[in-house]
TrEMBL record:
<dbReference type="Pfam" id="PF01925">
    <property type="entry name" value="TauE"/>
</dbReference>
<feature type="transmembrane region" description="Helical">
    <location>
        <begin position="157"/>
        <end position="180"/>
    </location>
</feature>
<feature type="transmembrane region" description="Helical">
    <location>
        <begin position="79"/>
        <end position="95"/>
    </location>
</feature>
<keyword id="KW-1003">Cell membrane</keyword>
<feature type="transmembrane region" description="Helical">
    <location>
        <begin position="224"/>
        <end position="245"/>
    </location>
</feature>
<keyword id="KW-0812">Transmembrane</keyword>
<comment type="similarity">
    <text>Belongs to the 4-toluene sulfonate uptake permease (TSUP) (TC 2.A.102) family.</text>
</comment>
<keyword id="KW-0472">Membrane</keyword>
<keyword id="KW-1133">Transmembrane helix</keyword>
<protein>
    <recommendedName>
        <fullName>Probable membrane transporter protein</fullName>
    </recommendedName>
</protein>
<dbReference type="InterPro" id="IPR002781">
    <property type="entry name" value="TM_pro_TauE-like"/>
</dbReference>
<feature type="transmembrane region" description="Helical">
    <location>
        <begin position="252"/>
        <end position="269"/>
    </location>
</feature>
<dbReference type="GO" id="GO:0005886">
    <property type="term" value="C:plasma membrane"/>
</dbReference>
<dbReference type="InterPro" id="IPR052017">
    <property type="entry name" value="TSUP"/>
</dbReference>
<keyword id="KW-0813">Transport</keyword>
<feature type="transmembrane region" description="Helical">
    <location>
        <begin position="101"/>
        <end position="117"/>
    </location>
</feature>
Length: 275
């Protein structure tokens, strides 16, 4: 009984921390949960499946606060979700068939690629708005440090299809793929960091829901694991979303980069051990 309580408490604590950091950075709590579960001895495919389900909780927990503060761009999210959901279903279908070590290395490779692209592609503050972006009306404004910031998106015809890659990784790896999503939204579509993080969290939930249907059918989802994780991530994501509005874009990006580097290292180690 004590072991069961300890395990539940541990899983809630993991979910709490992952939800908080995932919401704050825009990576999504599942990017953090999957490596931790693997480190605790959970098979990688089981960890991925249960992390996918928690994605929905993380998204739901943080989205309400982001919507209230006008960080989330609903029009951009609905458009980009069309592509991430498609990729999520394909990715989840592939993940149940390939060896575990391939998933470890794909996890590390994807996050490293996302990080490098994010540093290479800088947010675009200038440029003419394209026809599709004008039709979708992807623009908005929000308050930051007492000042009203306005922004206008662009290049949505390019950014949309690129989101298929994010969805593919999300479904195959049990992560929100927030690092890649925010990179595309910042560097290609030209959305501010906070708007990208908030919109990423909103999209993550829909992508996770699509991928979760595949994993539930395979029987990889364990209610004794996913239940406590959902409780923790829900609370953690709410706290993280409230703190995001009080810190600068620079600090939010520093958190995201630090977490990404740590996760890459852990996945490379696990991949080498699994061969």
């Amino acid at each position: 009984m004590n072991i069961l309580v300890l395990n539940i408490a541990t899983l809630v604590a993991i979910g709490l921390g992952a939800g908080f950091l995932g919401s704050l950075s825009g990576l999504g709590g599942a990017s953090i949960i999957t490596p931790i579960l693997v480190g605790l001895g959970v098979p990688v495919k089981t960890a991925i499946a249960n992390s996918v389900v928690t994605i929905v909780a993380t998204s739901a927990g943080s989205s309400a606060s982001y919507l209230r503060d006008h960080y989330t761009n609903i029009r951009a999210a609905m458009y980009l979700e069309l592509f991430t959901i498609m990729g999520g279903i394909i990715g989840a279908s592939i993940a149940v068939l390939v060896p575990s070590w391939m998933l470890y290395f794909f996890f590390a490779f994807f996050l490293l690629s996302s990080l490098l692209i994010r540093e290479k592609i800088k947010p675009k503050e200038e440029g003419s708005i394209d026809k599709l972006t004008a039709i979708l009306k992807i623009h908005g404004r929000y308050w930051e440090n007492g000042r009203l910031r306005e922004y206008v998106g662009r290049n949505t015809a390019i950014g949309g299809p690129l989101m298929i890659i994010a969805g593919l990784a999300a479904g195959a790896l049990g992560i929100g793929a927030g690092a890649f999503k925010t990179t595309i939204m910042e560097g290609v579509i030209g959305l501010p960091v906070k708007v990208s993080s908030a919109t990423s969290n909103f999209i993550i939930g829909m992508t996770g829901l699509a991928a979760a249907t595949v994993y539930v059918k395979t029987g990889l989802v364990d209610p004794f694991i996913v239940g406590p994780l959902i409780l923790g991530t829900s609370i953690g994501s709410i706290i993280g979303s409230r703190i995001l509005g009080k810190i600068s874009d620079k600090k939010a990006k520093m958190v995201s980069v630090a977490l990404t580097l740590y996760i890459i290292l852990q996945m490379l180690i696990k991949g080498a051990q699994a061969i």
